[in-house]
Amino acid sequence: MITKSEFLADLISALELEDNISMDDEFRDYDDWDSLMFLSLVAYLRDTCNLNLTPELFETVDTWEDIYNKLPL
Amino acid sequence: MGRYIQQAPAVNSIVEAIAQNAAKAPNHLALRIGKEVCTYAQLWNLIQEASSKMLSFQAQSIILLSAEKALSFITHYFAAHLNGLICILVDPKLSVESLTCITNCYDIKAFLSSKQHIEGVTNIHYHSAASGEIVRQYQFPSRDSIADYMFTTGTTGEKKCVPLSHGNILASATNINAFIGNTQQDHELIALPLCHSFGLGRIRCALLAGGSCTVIPNFANERKLLSVLSEEGITGFSMVPAAWLYIRHLCANKFIAAAQKLRFIEIGSAPLTLEEKQFLESSLPHTRICMHYGLTEASRSAFMEFHADAAHLASSGKASPGVEIAIFSTEGKQLSANEPGEVCVRGAHVTKGYLNYLRDDYFYNGFFRTGDVGKIDSDGFLYILGRIKEQINVGGKKVSPDEVEQLIQKLPGVKECACTAAPDPDGILGEIVKVHIVPDGSTALSISQIIQFMRGQVEPHKIPKIVEFREVPLPRTDSGKLQRQKLR
């Protein structure tokens, strides 16, 4: 399974985030969090992590850690 | 015309309207942005204080402002207008390279931002201490003086500069308020970016009417959006179709429940499907849902209201109050009802012409040529049938194919490149950027390499989501002009 540091590195690349993000970040509070970034996240999780980020699932997550914990083993 | 009562404003600019509203209702809430809250009296004082930082600049000097979602941006923007300066608003995400490109093309006297600096330009930090004093009597700008330089995303490779006068902006806001009917009692939630004319335009409309605005960072934080929307007193909301599709995807039921009390919603900047219009119309029976058609050069030229115009939802509505729309042939002849041709617009809100371009090339008999193909039916409803332009609309943000192509062409290994729109497979953004590349074989090219190369050089929405490599040359006319339509 992908490690947390690999997960963060992937997110920085896929979502074009600044490189000082942490697993505890509440991503919705990012200044530049927008629908384009959301779609990039959906695509990254679907294509790389085999996770379907449904609206129901998205409602239950606040932080990167929460999403990481939903990744299939 | 004639559907709504429109009163001629007693002021010549939005900043004058703010001053007038501050005198009439000093304690009325004007803006709430994050933790910053101000009444009209406080806003007017902040504008006057901020203007003191800019007294050294001569009237009609050009300044660059980073359109951040902060009270300081709003106050400095109107302070610049109070001092007679011309504003160029930039996306806070714009790279330093792109900013420098603007400063190389225009005689920029200062850059106002809280985050970035540009070498060789006077940098004014939004949060630097203001004098706190009102140092002179102000002369409000005239309707003819230029307020803003906006930029269109053309297809010729060069962005055209659109000068908008205080009269243009005031007329536009007056027309919009006449159609939507917003008043001092309205309190609008604004999640749109302020670097685009729709978002800042909503603030102008509210401040002209003496109403209140709550500004939140974006639509994407759906929890924040729903929480503010549900608050007591919010009566208005504005969104682009991509934002609605995002909301519908994530939280349609909660949004519809919270939006029942809204008096109005304004939608615009991109088309919305008939099905989405019908869904909103049936879901929000008591809300005026107003959708506009317009462009930077002629903001909100047409409007429709989903309930009143339910039989014409496939149209783009009728000419806004104070606006004339006509269809012209390629020979410049005005056409009759139902005849397709170029959509042209006339009114006080229309720019007088592009900077450094001949006016006659863009006007027919005083009507501005939009570059859109359309027709007007016998009831006066405008139907947009296509675009003469080839710009791409990514969730309401426009992309010039030339800008993307010219950048990718700099990448080693690229022989030819074309940029077109492709439908967004997730169905939220409407269109996404696709590039077609013919490699020259000198070096291996990959999608990730192209994306990496573009990052930081253009805004994120301009980075292609689809890259198609081709072995055959790109389609071109006999004269060598790229035929993008054949690639779509």
Description:
- The complex is a heterodimer of chains A (73) and B (488).
- By secondary structure, chain A is mostly helical.
- Chain A has a single domain, classed as Orthogonal Bundle (Non-ribosomal Peptide Synthetase Peptidyl Carrier Protein, Chain A), CATH 1.10.1200.
- Chain A has 4 helices and no strands.
- In chain A, helix 1 crosses helix 2.
- The longest helix of chain A is centred in the middle third of the chain and has 14 residues, at 35-48.
- Helix content of chain B is 26%, strand content 28%.
- Chain B is built from 11 helices and 25 strands.
- Chain B has helices at 14-24, 40-51, 71-82, 96-105, 166-180, 197-209, 222-229, 241-259, 274-283, 401-408, 447-454, and strands at residues 29-33, 36-39, 62-66, 86-90, 108-113, 122-125, 146-152, 160-165, 187-190, 212-215, 236-239, 264-267, 288-295, 298-305, 318-319, 323-328, 341-347, 363-364, 367-376, 382-387, 392-394, 397-399, 414-423, 431-439, 466-469.
- Chain B has a 9-stranded mixed sheet with strand order 2-1-10-9-11-12-13-14-15. A 6-stranded mixed sheet of chain B has the order 6-5-3-4-7-8, sandwiched between helices.
- In chain B, helix 1 (14-24) packs across helix 2 (40-51), helix 1 (14-24) runs parallel beside helix 6 (197-209) and helix 5 crosses helix 6.
- The model of chain B has no long low-confidence stretch (mean pLDDT 90).
- The interface between A and B is medium-sized, with 16 and 24 residues.
